[in-house]
Amino acid sequence: MRIGDYKESYSADEAVFRTGTVRVWMLLLFVAMAVFPFWAGPYLLYMANLTGVAIIAAVGLNILTGAAGQISLGHAAFVGIGAYTAAILTTRLGLPFLICLPLSGISAAFFGMIVGAPSMRMKGLYLCIATLAAQMIFEFIFVHWTSVTGGIRGINVPTASIFGISFDTEFKMYFITVPIMVIAVSAARNLFRTRVGRAFIAIRDRDISAELMGINLFQYKLYAFATSSFFAGVAGCLQVYILKIVTPEHFPLHESVRYLAMIIVGGLGSVLGSIFGAIFMTCVPEALQSLLSLFQGIDDKIMSYLYPLQTVVFGMLIVVFLVFEPHGLAEMWRRLKDYFRLWPFEH
Amino acid sequence: MDILAQLIVSGIAVGGVYALIALGFVVIYKATSIINFATGEFMMIGAYFFYTFLVMVGMPPIPSFLMVMLCSAMLGLFIERAILRHMLGQPTISIVMVTIGLSSILMGLAEMIWSTDFKNFPPLFPRAPIILGDIIIRSNLFWGFIVAMLAVAAFALLFKYAKVGVAMRATAGDQMAAFSMGINVRTMFTVAWSLGAIAAALGGVIIGNIGGIQPTLGNIGLKIFPVVILGGLDSIAGAVVGGFIVGLVENIAGGYLDPYVGGGVKDLAPFVVLVLILLIKPYGLFGKEDIERL
Amino acid sequence: MAILSVDNLSLSFGGLSVLNDISFSVNPGEIFAIIGPNGAGKTSILNCIGGFYKPSAGRISFDGKDITRTSPDRRAARGLARTFQNIALFRGMTVLDNIKLGAHAHLKTGLLRALAYWGPAHREEMTLREQVEQDVIDFLEIEAIRKQAVGSLAYGLQKRVELARALAMHPKVLLMDEPVAGMNAEETEDMARFVLDIQEERDITVVLIEHDMNVIMDISDRVMVVNFGQKIAEGTPDEVQSHPEVIKAYLGQKKD
Is the CATH number 1.20.120 carried by domain A40-341? Predict the structure, then answer.
């Protein structure tokens, strides 16, 4: 229970973790994240790594779509560009992981700006359809530019290594993925404490008055596309080193939809929501699959009914959240916190 | 030359079917301003309805066809009432996502009900290909085109002359004004969803008759986006023109370029055209830019 | 030397003429009012000055420079601020963030520094917070609502927050579109007092559109009257009030 909200400086008033209680909880969370790999088995660590990747990508998409209001159906393509950049740089030029990582982000950001440049003149549905076209075009390139991308067979990637240490297990990869995820999340959080983040939200809420307030719409829409695809590219690079292979199958339209589903379920425009959404949309289907696999071998006919259930549940989650909780898990979390803030003296 | 003529003719034939499916999208957008990403799944479900009545129940083709229209109308009605009615006034992203979620649900349900196995309709038309001079058209494609054109014409007449069509156009023009003139706007939304579902379902039956059906058939629905961007999101005539253009573009581009890049051009070309058009005309070929006010 | 001058401004949409050959100039430090019947083109004049509408002919200069072809965001950065007839706050942000957004053009943090935050970005934000608190929030007496979402505020307060956002832009000229429309007597009085304070204490030139004649007559130094997109009179409030064209425009032509 905490009472009162008294600050002595503006700096304290604007801090991310504003009270001692919150700081203690954050510390506990970090401890838990540090201890987790020593307790978890390879499968859980594998899932944790993929979740970390999803969080980075979802945070990126939420900057573009949730905060700046530019709908993108092509986010998976940018994750793909990051992944292919990393794979090609490693296998062809032998560049080390630590150099591939930023370059993947930069290359995705570059293509993101190319796709985003026309967004100055397009709005809403038209932009949404244009990004759908971008997704289709990049997917085509991944499949058909065989000499560079390896076609449908893709590219096999060696394990990441930093200063001679080979990150060849899920356990070791965890210590790359999670810190980068934490950095990415903090960077996104920082963004919204400055004029850049405010400008994004202003563009989403009312682009015309944003421009009359001195915001250069073209510049900031490009910023949003660049930042969002940079996050996507970094996520793509990590994904390559976790899976050790990149193929076009990893970046279909459905994957773009999955990222959108994460930010819808988590909460549009909320960094915390992106995290919740990414965890939820990675873990729920996986849990469902494990549940279904219990029936495996008992009756194949039941399986043929149960397997498509995952597709139905995926769609249901999106629809149910949009109808009943449009602000997503982040809003549910806020209500839960409000409830416990004065607990047990809520009256 | 023969190849080109052949590609053009089959392009037009396929384009006619795209026009019908795009109509299913346009009808809904026009009346409700909702962009329906589940149009392709409406189409796929329509094809399965037809399969169910024709093959599983054993009804003759024409009654099966009528049953498809009835069932699709009910599906559209149900979806509008159960889901989209709650979404009025929500931002674009939410509406886009709700129809995407819907498409996922419909696809999963189709897999559960009809399994993922590939299915064919029994032959409905004479098998002999239609021969026009040097050009050969597959029988199913030819008849599909004829049926699609008849359906498009029927919808166009409905909108122009029938009372419900006029009311829908009024609703599309100005919801508040239509409401104050005694038109029940909510009923119009339901009607639009039912009609949209019917148009898409008929397109699905034709496509299914040409190439067989499976739950992923709905992916063809993505091609309506180039069609409607070309034709303007809310224009019926535009949907027809856009349908033909997309049919032609994908056939010609596919026919000439596929050998060089190893296939797939057919599915890509409409999107490349779409991007080029949006670069030049950000509101589509026939779309109107809204004058914004402060 | 005028701070804002509009020469032979015309605007049309398609074939429809909205503004026809309007010229006026505003002197530094004055309160200049534009009045006229509904649909006369008053808001269109502000939209042309702000850069949202592109005039079909004419020239606008501000602070000694021709800004006719300058983009809206650059005009804002040079010192043109605006409040709107239908409140145009950013509903997804708090009052404080809305006000901070007004200072956008005066801040320097770029994308990379924003992502890193600690260091220059943090220092800039803290200075900004202090400035905004002292110059704007205290001045407009909105301390109590600074952390609230703007959507939850009463209408009169929303108008005040909009003014706060405009002040955070450190404008040389403030364009106000119907600042007291829809307000009760008390709120109207407050707003009129704020406008006078802004002019007197901060040397900000104010161009305002208003229907409330009492407010216009009380606070404005000069008044311009427009009707059907044309300027029909200009002068002190008293002069304008007795101008025959103005009476005709407001009361309609007398039938002979």
Answer: no
